[in-house]
Amino acid sequence: MSIVQELLSKVPFPQDSLALFLDCDQSTISKWKSGERKMPGYQFEKLCNLVGFSLEDYAEGKPLVVKTIAHFRSDALSKDDLIALSELNKMAANLEMLERLSHDKR
User: Fold this and answer.
1) How many CB atoms lie within 10 A of CB 89?
2) Domain chopping of the chain, boundaries
3) CB contact set of 88 (below 8 Å; sequence gap of 6+)
4) Vertex 32, ends 30 and 34: CA angle to 5°?
5) Which of 22, 93, 101 is nearest to 62 (CA)?
6) For the segment 17-56, what is each residue's pLDDT rounded down to a tens digit?
């Protein structure tokens, strides 16, 4: 299973919401899930941000851990909700990186 297939299998959001967020058709997501089509890099980055999996973790070969907390009605999410969640995840990842750097310098 590719990293894209693994990410898509763990996304806690409906496929129609995910398609809106990634600016694609639901059929495209199905093709990514099946491995029939490759996901472009910019959409891979958006998907990683949405689930809280950093590209650095991917580059370092770290196991996939989905950090998105979906303790809300995920069937009622808009594209803007997913964009906001993605941005929050990016901020959390940056904060984790800064904390690691700060700790490493001590």
Assistant:
1) 20
2) 3-104
3) none
4) 70
5) 93
6) 999 999 999 999 999 999 999 999 999 999 998 888 887 8
